[in-house]
């Protein structure tokens, strides 16, 4: 794509490629559709719904970001974000989801590019959000495909949620910051291939393993005394929660104990190997 491609044009091209139209949603009926879309994804108990129709209505009325992705069948994806403190020039993206029938079409990618263009048009330079560090596909999407950077490890951030995705697991999260004007972010938004990370090659070049995994999929603590540190996550934590909840909890604790102190100590998460490895750089090593 051209270097002159604007964020809005990049977002439009991504939406066209995904087969959707993305627009800001303000009408109550469509906000109700967004609520039910999120409910169909998370299957939350009423007391733990990630967002209510009334809150979406209030956010929209106050000028925050509430957007939907629509195809010929109707609403297939949505995202909601609110403004942070004025001096931060940032919006916080609270929730985003894509209907199961529309997955695999890059609808989520198109939504994030639309959100980026909207935020820049409203004078914002950054978007933040949280995600579960154990969900490998989200880590790849956030760190590699979007070019975001985790800045804080948040143990049990939301407390018990008890939905179909989180189960009874502790809700540890990584706080991610997406610098909307960073060269890497601009490059991937314009369609350039993102950087590829290979844990085996990094290990051969001297990277150390702070958390590995056995052939049977169990976490194995290691050492974090190198400049480049690798931290493993399970291939599919959501399936593991269904089949082996105790094993999922062991992974939660292991990643918290390996990744949390690294980030809290000033290390930077610089990439993610799609095979399930965080790549962390220690500036003090």
TrEMBL record:
InterPro entries assigned to the protein according to its UniProt record, in alphabetical order: Acyl_CoA_acyltransferase, GNAT_dom, GNAT_N_AcTrfase_prd
**What name does UniProt use for this protein?**
GNAT family N-acetyltransferase
Which residue numbers delimit the N-acetyltransferase domain?
Answer: 20-166
- Annotated source species: Paractinoplanes aksuensis
Highest taxon listed in the record's lineage: Bacteria
Which Pfam families does this chain map to? Acetyltransf_1
Return the PANTHER family for the record.
GCN5-RELATED N-ACETYLTRANSFERASE (PTHR41700), N-ACETYLTRANSFERASE DOMAIN-CONTAINING PROTEIN (PTHR41700:SF1)
